[in-house]
Automatic annotation (TrEMBL):
<dbReference type="InterPro" id="IPR050832">
    <property type="entry name" value="Bact_Acetyltransf"/>
</dbReference>
<dbReference type="InterPro" id="IPR000182">
    <property type="entry name" value="GNAT_dom"/>
</dbReference>
<keyword id="KW-0808">Transferase</keyword>
<protein>
    <submittedName>
        <fullName>GNAT family acetyltransferase</fullName>
    </submittedName>
</protein>
<dbReference type="Pfam" id="PF00583">
    <property type="entry name" value="Acetyltransf_1"/>
</dbReference>
<feature type="domain" description="N-acetyltransferase">
    <location>
        <begin position="8"/>
        <end position="165"/>
    </location>
</feature>
<dbReference type="GO" id="GO:0016747">
    <property type="term" value="F:acyltransferase activity, transferring groups other than amino-acyl groups"/>
</dbReference>
<dbReference type="InterPro" id="IPR016181">
    <property type="entry name" value="Acyl_CoA_acyltransferase"/>
</dbReference>
<keyword id="KW-0012">Acyltransferase</keyword>
Length: 165
């Protein structure tokens, strides 16, 4: 029997992935992982913000089980060496190394494009994600104290980065 690691494929996102990516976003991004649930109003709305090729998707036996998205944080030429990441893995596939493989693929892709810094944001109320990002080599570079008020409590927005060599 093959493990999920052995049957995992990682590739750039395609148009045909939109519905599965939208469903994964709806499942993963909730009040515990984001300041507000992520809701796409339509496939076109999703594709406007996440066009094909701006994510690496993980597929287990053809089923989309995770992604890492990347984009330049600004349109400034002086900021072109930086990519902002967001990553999601389906709950049924978490803690099986898929996030690690996606992050490694994102780092390899970024290096091949001359990117030297990756950055991301994570809520202080998400200790599992914080631990995962630290394990992947990210360090805290800033913190917006009490940036969000979620479910009756203030939550910090933690800015993390990883420098690529």
């Amino acid at each position: 029997m093959k493990t999920r690691q052995e049957t995992l494929t990682i590739r750039f996102s395609e148009m045909k992935d939109a519905a599965a990516l939208m469903a994964l976003d709806e499942l993963v991004w909730d009040r515990n992982t984001a300041p507000a649930p992520l809701e796409w109003t339509s496939r076109d709305h999703y594709l406007l913000h996440c066009p094909p090729g701006t994510q690496l998707v993980a597929l287990h036996e053809g089923e989309l089980c995770g992604y890492v998205g990347f984009r330049n944080p600004t349109s400034l030429h002086s900021n072109r060496h930086v990519l902002e990441l967001n990553i999601a893995v389906h709950p049924d596939y978490q803690r099986q190394g898929i996030g690690l493989r996606l992050m490694a693929a994102a780092k390899d892709t970024a290096r091949s494009k001359g990117i030297s810094k990756l950055r991301l944001r994570v809520l202080s109320s998400n200790p599992g994600a914080l631990s995962f990002y630290r394990y992947c080599g990210f360090t805290e570079e800033g913190r917006l104290i009490q940036e969000f008020y979620v479910d009756g409590r203030y939550v910090d927005d933690i800015l993390m980065c990883c420098f690529l060599s």
